[in-house]
Specification:
alpha+beta, N-terminal domain of MutM-like DNA repair proteins, 2 domains, four-stranded antiparallel sheet, 8 helices, 30% helix, globular, DNA-binding
DNA sequence: TCCTTATGTACAA
DNA sequence: TGTACCTAAGGAC
């Protein structure tokens, strides 16, 4: 599930269930056991997300830094918590709720200073109030790298993943292979504000929907999609299927070890 | 039951 | 550019 919207939603959900409580902290899988013992029964005092990074603050300045990577998953439930399976890296449990984290790339206890270093290497996040999109455009507009690659570069813009990347480029008719330096200020403004809107909706619904109302299955009569990632999309994982707008075939290609999807007709420069 | 795939990233060569 | 890492689901047999 993990693009930025998922992580911001998790920050909200961890807060809703555990903020200002002192949960039992454990690491049944073992890799986080020492830190879990230090935090056990400490108060959760804040939660925060920046891009795909999640931070949980305990006491004054102890942070758990979580990055889900490609496989990480989080599961919330009501107390009493069932016996944890041996893949649960981190479990929080209080009198009302429990939450299990499995398969993260990162789950580590860090200091304020270490946390700041992570913020410093991330670009602006469309879901954060402090985001300055011109910082991102400054990098995009002087890069020969493709806009498709730049949108996935967390140093440039934080939180966009493979789904939002493909979908936002489709929605603006931009060829994914166009160099960043050829994106105009007007195009960048439109891409950024669209990401803000799409990702906010993603946080709200806990899924990625990018299809405009006039192109939804309800409006067009075509069958709904809804696959693993849960939402209605134009191009993501629709290789060789007809484009919702022009009927041409959606294409897929490997770009930096990830799958890129686009419509060569609708997204021709 | 095995194989592939996945919304990610870091590091080596 | 390739590979390693972490987990689970779906499809092929």
């Amino acid at each position: 599930m993990p693009e930025g919207h998922t992580i911001h939603r998790l920050a909200q959900d961890y807060a809703a269930a555990f903020l200002r409580t002192a949960p039992h902290v454990t690491s049944p899988q073992g890799k986080f056991s020492d830190a879990a013992a230090l935090l056990d029964r400490a108060e959760l005092t804040d939660t925060e997300a920046h891009g795909k990074h999640l931070f949980l603050r305990f006491r004054e300045a102890d942070w758990i830094h979580i990055h889900l990577g490609l496989f990480g998953k989080v599961n919330f439930g009501d107390a009493p918590a069932p016996p944890a399976t041996d893949t649960v890296r981190l479990r929080l449990a209080n009198s009302a709720s429990y939450v299990d984290l499995r398969g993260p790339t990162t789950c580590a206890l860090i200091t304020d200073t270490e946390k700041q270093a992570i913020h410093d290497r991330l670009g602006p996040d469309p879901l954060r109030e402090d985001a300055d999109d011109q910082t991102a455009y400054a990098r995009v507009s002087r890069s020969r790298t493709t806009i498709a690659a730049l949108l996935m570069d967390q140093k440039v813009i934080a939180g966009v993943g493979n789904v939002y990347r493909a979908e936002v480029l489709f929605r603006h008719g931009i060829d994914p292979y166009r160099p960043g330096r050829d994106i105009t200020p007007t195009e960048w403004d439109a891409l950024w504000s669209d990401l803000v809107a799409l990702m906010r909706e993603g946080v709200r619904n806990n899924r990625i929907d990018t299809v405009r109302p006039e192109h939804t299955p309800e409006a067009t009569g075509r069958p709904p999609r809804v696959d693993d990632h849960g939402g209605e999309v134009y191009v993501y994982r629709r290789a060789n299927l007809p484009c919702h707008l022009c009927g041409g075939e959606i294409r897929a290609a490997a770009l930096a070890a990830r799958n890129l999807f686009w419509c060569p007709i609708c997204q021709r420069d």
